C-alpha cells in the first residue's frame, strides 16, 4: 500500500529530487553506489518497474492517484507518494507533468560493451548525440525496428534523463544499452573491438564514397554495427575512416540530410529486416 502524503510545503527536502537537484546531482545521488533518475508518465514508470528498477518515491497529481497513475502506483509498493493539484506540481517542478506522475528510481547497473554485443546481430552506436529528444526517439525506433542493443559514447545525452525516457515511451527499459566502457577510447580501440566480435561497421555520412542504404552487400552481412553521429557535425572523421562502410540515405527534392532521429528510423528499418 502506498504512503500518500499531501504536499503542504514545497520546500521539504524530500521534494528536492523533483524540484531542486540537477541531473548531475541525481546521477551521483548515492555516490559511490550509483544514483537516481526520474521517470515521467505511468507508461514509462510501468516499463521501468517491469525492467526491475527500484522506485524510491512518487510525485503525482492528486486526481490521478485513483486515475491514470493507479495501476503504476499499485506496482510501486510501500513508498512515499507526494500529491498536490496540477498547478502546485507545475509550480514545484517548473513544467507540466505528463499524465500527472513522476517516479524517482534507483539507476540500474549497466552491462559492459562486450555483453551488449555478445549475442547481437544488429547494434547501434550513438556518437555524441546530445539532444535528449533525439536520443529518446532513436531508442524507440531501435526497439521497434529489430535492433538488438545500443552503445553510447560519453558525449551523448543520458537515456535515463526524464525527457529522453519519456520520448522513448519507456523503450529505454526494453532494449539493452550501455556506454562505451570507461577504459576503452572511442573511436579507437572501440571500433576495433566491434570488429573483433564479428561486426561490420557502418558509418552514416554524406560522402562521395558513400554507398546507398539499399545496397545488397549491407543486408548480406551477418552482423552490423550502425553508427550515427551528433546533430549538425555528424560523425568524427576518425570514426568514418575506421568504418567498413560509409552509407547514405537517397533523398529527393534537393534535401541534403535528415535529422539523426529520422535517419536512424530509416536505417533500422532497412538494415534490421534481415
Instruction: Give the mean pLDDT.
Output: 94
Task: Determine the CATH topology of the largest domain.
Answer: Alpha/beta knot
Counting DSSP H or I runs of 4 or more residues, the number of helices is: 12
CATH architecture of the largest domain: 3-Layer(aba) Sandwich
Q: Give the end-to-end Cα distance, rounded to a whole number of Å.
A: 47 Å
Order of helices and strands: EHHEHEHEHEHEHEHEHEEHEHEH
Shape: elongated
In what order do the strands lie side by side in the largest sheet?
8-7-6-11-9-12-10
How helix-rich are the residues, as a percent range? Answer: 25-40%
Structure classification:
alpha/beta
How does this structure look, described?
The protein is α/β, with parallel strands linked by helices and 274 residues long. It folds into 2 domains: 3-106, Ribosomal protein L30/S12 (60s Ribosomal Protein L30, Chain: A), CATH 3.30.1330; 113-271, SPOUT methyltransferase, trefoil knot domain (Alpha/beta knot, 3-Layer(aba) Sandwich). It has helices at 16-19, 23-27, 42-50, 70-74, 86-93, 113-118, 132-144, 162-167, 190-196, 216-220, 237-241, 260-271; strands spanning 3-6, 36-40, 55-61, 80-84, 101-106, 122-126, 149-152, 177-179, 200-204, 211-212, 224-228, 245-248. The strands form 2 sheets. Strands 8-7-6-11-9-12-10 form a 7-stranded parallel sheet. The protein has a 5-stranded mixed sheet with strand order 1-4-3-5-2. Strand 3, helix 4 and strand 4 form a beta-alpha-beta unit. The radius of gyration is 20 Å and the shape is elongated. The model has no long low-confidence stretch (mean pLDDT 94).
Amino acid at each position: 500500500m502506498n504512503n500518500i502524503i499531501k504536499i503542504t510545503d514545497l520546500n521539504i527536502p524530500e521534494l528536492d529530487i523533483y524540484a531542486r537537484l540537477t541531473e548531475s546531482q541525481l546521477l551521483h545521488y548515492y555516490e559511490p553506489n550509483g544514483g537516481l533518475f526520474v521517470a515521467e508518465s505511468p507508461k514509462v514508470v510501468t516499463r521501468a518497474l517491469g525492467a526491475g528498477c527500484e522506485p524510491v518515491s512518487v510525485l503525482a497529481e492528486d486526481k490521478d492517484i485513483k486515475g491514470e497513475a493507479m495501476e503504476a502506483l499499485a506496482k510501486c509498493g510501500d513508498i512515499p507518494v507526494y500529491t498536490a493539484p496540477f498547478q502546485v506540481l507545475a509550480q514545484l517542478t517548473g513544467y507540466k507533468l505528463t499524465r500527472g506522475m513522476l517516479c524517482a528510481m534507483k539507476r540500474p547497473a549497466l552491462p559492459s560493451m562486450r555483453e551488449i554485443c555478445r549475442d547481437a546481430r544488429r547494434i547501434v552506436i550513438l556518437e555524441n548525440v546530445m539532444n535528449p529528444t533525439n536520443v529518446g526517439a532513436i531508442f524507440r525506433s531501435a526497439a521497434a525496428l529489430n535492433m538488438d542493443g545500443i552503445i553510447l559514447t560519453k558525449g551523448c545525452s543520458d537515456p535515463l534523463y526524464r525527457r529522453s525516457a519519456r520520448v522513448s515511451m519507456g523503450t529505454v527499459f526494453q532494449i539493452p544499452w550501455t556506454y562505451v566502457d570507461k577504459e576503452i577510447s572511442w573511436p579507437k580501440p572501440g571500433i576495433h573491438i566491434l570488429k573483433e566480435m564479428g561486426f561490420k561497421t557502418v558509418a552514416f555520412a554524406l560522402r562521395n564514397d558513400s554507398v546507398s542504404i539499399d545496397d545488397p552487400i549491407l543486408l548480406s552481412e551477418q552482423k552490423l554495427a550502425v553508427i550515427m553521429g551528433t546533430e549538425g557535425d555528424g560523425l568524427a572523421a576518425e570514426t568514418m575512416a575506421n568504418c567498413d562502410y560509409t552509407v547514405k540515405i537517397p533523398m529527393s527534392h534537393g534535401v541534403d540530410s535528415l535529422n539523426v532521429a529520422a535517419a536512424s528510423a530509416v536505417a533500422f528499418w532497412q538494415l534490421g529486416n534481415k
